[in-house]
Each structure stands twice: as structure tokens, then as C-alpha cells.
DNA sequence: CCAGACGTTGTT
DNA sequence: GTCTGG
DNA sequence: CCAGACGTTGTT
DNA sequence: GTCTGG
């Protein structure tokens, strides 16, 4: 019976941050979100507790932040821009398991340019190679040559052409649909290098906290927040053609090196049913828009933006899965199986929808 | 002019 | 590469 | 997205 | 805490 199990509730990230180890004041200021302002030369070993003002609508409330360090307390004006840690969720993991031939057929690919094998991947993470569909004129073709629709594998995490090394790619895994046309890192690719990234569905992690157990009485035992992975996929089982951009990059110091092909996933608002638990999702391109989306000759940002339509409510399934997906070392169909009773220490007792 | 960023997620 | 901030 | 590391000195 | 690697 799961009816007596504590009900999980969605909580926001803590506004109190505890840091331990050897830190300077800069670390603490960073921990509480200040990226600018007065500095202090104090250093030391031990643990600190820092608190910061609550942020609403992207701006800090008025007031002061207190940073206590043993007997010393520093106050700082709370007027600086706040920077959050990587506590949120986005499209950072997905599954793509269609076989090569299925992809070639489904997307009416003209040229199979994907070297090597295309293996089902139930745990795609940033920096991995992913199958992609794109349209591009042949390498040595004269101007005006027709673009050819091709299947390739790309590295997830877009590396802009100006990057000194490819490490920036792991931070360029998503592009917001609302701003992608104007961001320096993306707009060139948005105009000329769009692609489709086939997916079965994507993962997202809820931050869960069990409600207080009355049996514990006055003891306010603070439980560690737990993250529960969910898999989200189209109800009809159709392939998700995620809107993507690709880029070609070559190290500056090695003209003979091969071009590195990289990509990013465009995100958009999630419809209400999904938005109750998570307000962003990958942008999906409808089949009747695939041709236009892939057309490298369509470069007007307004026209391209017109192809991007947020998903309709009620079209996706979302259900909890095993925490095995947390580790990129795990891979297999079991990662997208609904979590069974007993999985994850009973964090969740069933589907939300 | 040069230096430095170039991105996303979240909202008690 | 190109834009913003100082 | 999560997991896991997170540094320096010197140089037989 | 922040950053990198997968």
C-alpha cells in the first residue's frame, strides 16, 4: 500500500547556502549570489552559513545580505545582479533509439552521411554524438546548388566558430526560442544551419521533498531534497523532431584538423499540463514544417521564427523513472520504463497524469 | 578605444 | 566573429 | 541534465 | 560552492 506514504511536493531551491572547506569571501559572495560589490580579504577553513535576499522577477529585493564568518559579520548592499547555481532543470538529457533505417525513412533522407554505427541511446547527455537530420549543399558544389537532406551524427553542445576550445560546448546545450535569433552564439546558425534532432522523449528532474512526518513531533528534521527523474514523450509514440541548430568548428592552431560538427536543442514554453511541473521543454517541429525548417535558403529570422510553434497541451505523457538514468554510465531500455514500486526509496508512488 | 562575454535553468 | 560595458 | 573533481610544490 | 566531462 502506498496510500500512507508521504506526499511529495515541489519545492524551490533553498535560499540558504551552506559551504564548507577552505574559502575566501569571494566564494561566499558567490554562494549567496553576489557577482559584484565589495570584497574582503578574509580567508579561512571551516564551514560558513550565508543567507541572501529573496529574488523575485529577476531582481533582488531591497535590503542587505549578511555573511557570517565566525565572529566577523559583513553586510553588503543587495543591489547586485543575482546569479543562481545550476539548480534548475532544462532539456539536458534525452533518449534517441530509432535505428538508422527508420530515421532514413521517417525523415526522407537523401544521403546517409552518418559514419559508423547508430546505436539506440537511452541516456543522451551533453557532449555525446547524436543523430541529426540537416539539409546542406555538397561541400564542393557551385553556388546555388541544391541542398541535400542528410543524416549525420553531431556532438551535443554547440561550439561557436570563434571558440578557442570546445569546452564551451557543454554550456551551449539549449537555446531559447524567444531569443535564439539575436544571441551572438546562435543567430548565425539560426539563419543558416538548422537541423532536426530525432528523440523518443526527454528526461527532466523534479526537486521533491517529503512532507513533514507528524510522528516526528517538534523535531524539525530537515530532509534532504530529492530529485525524481521523469521521462516525457509524445502520447502517440511518434518521433520527436526536436528543433536544433548546428555549427562547424575547427581548432585555430590546426588547419589540418577535421571539422567538428556540434548542435544545440531549442527550448520553448511547455503547455499547461506539463508546465504545472516544469515550464520549459524542447521545441518540436511538425512534419509539415520539416522542409522549411531545414531549408538553408530560408534565412529571414521572422520567417524562421514562424515555423516554431509550442506544443499543444495534452499531447505528451510524463511518468517517473528509475534514478539509474542519473548516471551517464547507465544505458538501456530499462531507463524509460515506468518506475516500479520500491524504486527510488518510494520517492514517488505513481504517474502525475 | 580595449576587455570580456558570448548560455540555460529557477523564483521563499 | 561581434556586441556590450567601462 | 547529473556525477565527480576541485592543487601546488619539486624534479633521480 | 563552481566547473568539467559524459
From TrEMBL:
Q: Does the keyword Cell inner membrane apply?
A: no
The record's listing under InterPro entries reads: SRAP, SRAP-like
Pfam families assigned: SRAP
The residues forming a coiled coil are: none
Q: Which UniProt keywords apply?
A: Covalent protein-DNA linkage, DNA damage, DNA-binding, Hydrolase, Lyase, Protease
Q: Where is this region: Disordered?
A: 330-353
Record-listed E.C. numbers: 3.4.-.-
Origin: domain of life: Bacteria
Q: Where is the composition biased (Polar residues)?
A: 342-353
Q: Output one GO MF annotation.
A: peptidase activity
One Gene Ontology biological process = protein-DNA covalent cross-linking repair
Q: Tell me the protein family, please.
A: Belongs to the SOS response-associated peptidase family.
Recorded hits in PANTHER family, A to Z, give: ABASIC SITE PROCESSING PROTEIN HMCES, DC12-RELATED
This one is known as Abasic site processing protein
Q: What organism does the UniProt record list as the source? A: Actinomadura verrucosospora
Amino acid at each position: 500500500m502506498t496510500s500512507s506514504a508521504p506526499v511529495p511536493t515541489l519545492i524551490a531551491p533553498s535560499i540558504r547556502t551552506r559551504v564548507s572547506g577552505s574559502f575566501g569571501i569571494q566564494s561566499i559572495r558567490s554562494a549567496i549570489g553576489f557577482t559584484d560589490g565589495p570584497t574582503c580579504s578574509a580567508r579561512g577553513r571551516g564551514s560558513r552559513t550565508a543567507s541572501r535576499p529573496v529574488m523575485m522577477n529577476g531582481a533582488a529585493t531591497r535590503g542587505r545580505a549578511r555573511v557570517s564568518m565566525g565572529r566577523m559579520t559583513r553586510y553588503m548592499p543587495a543591489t547586485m545582479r543575482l546569479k543562481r547555481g545550476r539548480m534548475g532543470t532544462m532539456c539536458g538529457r534525452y533518449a534517441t533509439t530509432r535505428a538508422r533505417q527508420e530515421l532514413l525513412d521517417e525523415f526522407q533522407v537523401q544521403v546517409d552521411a552518418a559514419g559508423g554505427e547508430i546505436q539506440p541511446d537511452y541516456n543522451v547527455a551533453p557532449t555525446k554524438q547524436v543523430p541529426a537530420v540537416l539539409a546542406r549543399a555538397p561541400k564542393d558544389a557551385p553556388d546555388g546548388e541544391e541542398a541535400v537532406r542528410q543524416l549525420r551524427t553531431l556532438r551535443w553542445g554547440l561550439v561557436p566558430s570563434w571558440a578557442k576550445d570546445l569546452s564551451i560546448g557543454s554550456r551551449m546545450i539549449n537555446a531559447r526560442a524567444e531569443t535564439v535569433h539575436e544571441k551572438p552564439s546562435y543567430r548565425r546558425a539560426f539563419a543558416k544551419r538548422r537541423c532536426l534532432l530525432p528523440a523518443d522523449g526527454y528526461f527532466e528532474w523534479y526537486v521533491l521533498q517529503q512532507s513533514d512526518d507528524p510522528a516526528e513531533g517538534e523535531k524539525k528534521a530537515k530532509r534532504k531534497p530529492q530529485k525524481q527523474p521523469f521521462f516525457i514523450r509524445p502520447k502517440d509514440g511518434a518521433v520527436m523532431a526536436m528543433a536544433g541548430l548546428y555549427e562547424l568548428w575547427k581548432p585555430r592552431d590546426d588547419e589540418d584538423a577535421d571539422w567538428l560538427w556540434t548542435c544545440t536543442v531549442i527550448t520553448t514554453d511547455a503547455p499547461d499540463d506539463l508546465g504545472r511541473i516544469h515550464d520549459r521543454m524542447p521545441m518540436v517541429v511538425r512534419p509539415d514544417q520539416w522542409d522549411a525548417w531545414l531549408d538553408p535558403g530560408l534565412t529571414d529570422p521572422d520567417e524562421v521564427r514562424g515555423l516554431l510553434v509550442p506544443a499543444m497541451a495534452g499531447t505528451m505523457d510524463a511518468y517517473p523513472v528509475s534514478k539509474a538514468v542519473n548516471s551517464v554510465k547507465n544505458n538501456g531500455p530499462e531507463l524509460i520504463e515506468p518506475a516500479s514500486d520500491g524504486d527510488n526509496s518510494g520517492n514517488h508512488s505513481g504517474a502525475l497524469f
